[in-house]
Amino acid sequence: ISTSHTVLMIMAFDRYVAICYSLRYSAIMNNSMVMKLSLSAWAVPLIFVVVLIGLSVRLNRCRTLVSNPYCDNASLFKLSCDSVVINNIYGLFYTAVLLGSSVGCILLTYGKIVVVCFTSKNKSLNRKAFKTCSTHLVVYLIMFFSGFTAIALHRFPQYSEYRKITSLLFFVVPGSLNSIIYGVQSKEVRSFLSKIFISNRNK
Description:
Helix content: over 70%
Largest sheet: none
Number of helices: 8
CATH class: Mainly Alpha
Distance between the termini: 45 Å
Main location: membrane
InterPro entries: GPCR1_Superfamily_Member (IPR052921), GPCR_Rhodpsn_7TM (IPR017452), Olfact_rcpt (IPR000725)
Structural class: mainly alpha
GO molecular function: odorant binding; olfactory receptor activity
Keywords: Membrane, Transducer, Transmembrane, Transmembrane helix
Strand content: under 5%
Protein name: Olfactory receptor, family 70, subfamily B, member 1
CATH topology: Rhopdopsin 7-helix transmembrane proteins
CATH architecture: Up-down Bundle
């Protein structure tokens, strides 16, 4: 989940540079910058997750049933009879930092892209910007709302059944839609689907 957010943040930055500083794109997004961004996309979530695991490992277990479709951190510390106040505080802090920085990055980059598109008279640039950014934004919003819902419902035990459903949807829906959303942007894919549609109509 964390790495998905950081990768989408980097993608938003990449689109911002490509649209707002198109002539300097190659200079800004050089190999060194790409390596640094890629490393940070994995390193930052890894550090946060290691701390989460460390806080869970220290707890004594008095239960064995994981009431979730998969074994995540919140499910693990719920197996303990010890105080999990620190785990909850850190989990909320981690979620706030991750989602806050994620939303902030999207709003900042897309806000500047919108300003450039409105002030630009280049219709071709605006069309390409909309085509490129719309897919990224749709994928981000799907992942954000499905992930946020699953995290929020962990704090409400009475909605455990809804949490299980949203947890499964988080892994199934975004991954399934990614290929569709990005696939329709491909000229070859659109051409192939058009041929199938036309042939079916002619039958």
